[in-house]
Amino acid sequence: MTFISRRDLLKAAAVVPFARGFQPAARPPLENLTATEMEILDAVVARLIPTDASGPGATEAMAAHYIDHALGGPLAASRQAYATGLAALDRFARSSRGAAFAKLTPADQDAVLTTVESGAATGFTGSPAGFFAMVLGHTHQGTFGDPYYGGNANFVGWDLVNYPGVRTMVSAADQSSLESKMMRPNHKSAYDYEFTKASGQGRGPAR
Amino acid sequence: MATRLKETDVVIIGLGAAGGVAALPLAQAGIDVVGLEAGTWLTRKDFAPDELRNNYRGWPQGIQKANQEIPTSRANASSPTSPRGTIHPMQNAVGGTSLHYWAQSWRLNPWDFRVVSETKKRYGASRIPRGSTVEDWPFGLEELEPYYDKVEYEIGVSGQAGNVNGTIDPKGNPFEGARKRPYPMPPLRGNQFLDRVAAAARSLGWHPFPGPAAVNSRPYQNRSACMYHGFCNRGGCHVDAKNSTAVTTIPRAQATGHLKVVTRAHVKTIEVDGNGRVTGVNYLSDGADYFQPARIVLVASYTYENVRLLLLSKSKAFPRGLANNHGQVGRHYFSHNQGAGVSALFPFNLNAWYGLPAQGIAVDNWADDNFDHGGLDFIGGGNMWVYSDRRPIAAAGMNTFGRAPAWGSAWKTFIRENADRSNTAYIQKTTLPYEDNYLDLDPEVKDPLGYPVCRVTAEFKENERQVGAFMQDKMEQWYREAGAIAIQRAPLGGAMGVTTHAYGGTRMGDNIETNVVDRWGFAHEAPNLGILGASVMGTSGARNPTLTAQALAWRTADHLAKNWKSIART
Fold this sequence. Notes:
The complex is a heterodimer of chains A (207) and B (570). Chain A has nine helices and no strands. Chain A is globular and about 60 Å long. By secondary structure, chain A is mainly α. The two termini of chain B are 29 Å apart. In chain B, helix 1 links the parallel strand 2 and strand 3 (33-36). In chain B, the strands form four sheets. In chain B, strands 1, 2, 3, 8, 9, 10, 11 and 19 form an eight-stranded mixed sheet that branches.
């Protein structure tokens, strides 16, 4: 039997229910990307993991914020690739579809992204397919990674794949509960557990 | 000018899986050991259940030495260099990669020690693949058995024995060589999906069994049992239930008073005197140079660094690198990390979120020479391993089996239903050493100190690709029997690259013309230099190397302790 605390239940209840047009209440300030770059990236992640009938997507997870933040730290090596890649993507949208990427219809955006993914898009400095794979990978990180890093807001990514949450102990009874579909998501980050709050070096990992 | 430290009996370079084991029998014999470790101590507080950090950003480490020395690689001498990795497969820390490895703790099977003689006897000499430099080991499994046993009990291994003193137990692996006693702990627990795949294997007439793991299935030596929290894959253990040397042999050796652990010690070269005997080790720590004199030097720094250290340690006695006057350092390199995996999609949830890669079901029917190769055009085979391990980012990146694109609404619908419905088998395959697969120093790429990094020149040959294709057929058959509705096969191997299962380079054998170390693990050319790790192994079998590397390390240390006066010349 899995123990679910009152605090967990309250937290679960506090999760914003999915609604079309949902936007985070307060948008975090930009840290590394320019406003123009962020507008394009926001539009890209919204097509990669769309908000649709099956629930919230990368927008609600705040995956673009995760990327913007990480580009100043652990993903710093990719900062230049985002600058040139997002600009090339926008130029390709204008030349092939007649408008900035963020202004295109979802269908046109998908057509542009498909061409980039296939490597056939023109005007990129490096490989368009490589740029696409990088953004998709980081969007996964920002949607399905631990919320400690700024993405997966309100655990929407973990709920999407039905991941029941970070636990430090899973007994045989807990496993049976999972197998009989009785285990509820606990909506806990690794860093909600006391032992993780200070590492041996006296701090948590770089976010 | 290096500070000359007080002489010690033995210096061990690298306190990881192998060096951390060797320290214990030496210290227990009263021999003074200095363990030089490039990394630092890490403890359970460093091991948060965090997929992003463990699996995408490199695992927690205090010191990034290895990441600045990642080997370069290419398929063969005329092919271009492959893209260089950004994370070294090994980590620097007390306990080394045994802190976060999968902890599968296999013994080799009897055939693995006698590939050449057994193949010639059963099929004829023509069946040894052309260009292979494979040799029989200088001894058989029976010689290593007591050391396997010692390590299994000292560090703690969970598993189901299949052959105790010749009595076969059908719950275990009927193909394993005889062991003197069962494992110290029962196997890790199963789950619904693993029970299903085991039943499927049995219905095919095969012999499934739970694999061995250096993870506590119950409390052992005052440490906790496994919590199955799902972050064991490249993660350290938050309750010390993974039996790294940092929580087993190293603290036990320290308790004798005969092991001094020196962290943040970046070893540069090994010194040699005019007679070709090693005299100690040069290392750098926090910007200062030290020379640690020792009667015996044991190199235990992983295959790539073992080879690099020897090649960098040039002297009058060894102008081509330490113990390399016969040109064998770096030769007979191989890795069985071919890939060539098989993934399956099931029409039901596998409930794999809470498990570990060492929790699974193995089948050995198609490994080694456990089946007749008379009508086949390869030797060897593979161990098939179905295990329970899943985390959310990896689940999102799952193969969509041609049923959905990789992104967008259709993908999202697919992933919502199938994120917990796929499984990818781990199939480790016989891989042989070949004349033109080797390690050397890269002519251009250097580490931050200006020393060349190791270069891998190696590719999978025809025998290995044949094994790969054969095993994919068997694995698909197994998955289909268990109810899989779709199968994807990864491509067969090309370039070998830089891996966690790297063998050879300082091979063990009686013949000085083809081997760097003798049957005890000491260099033929420099008798007070011992080498520990899978770099001494001449065959890989079809399973993880660590336990064999540890058993060999214990044996080398035990031999040294018992023959101290003659080897150390005191």
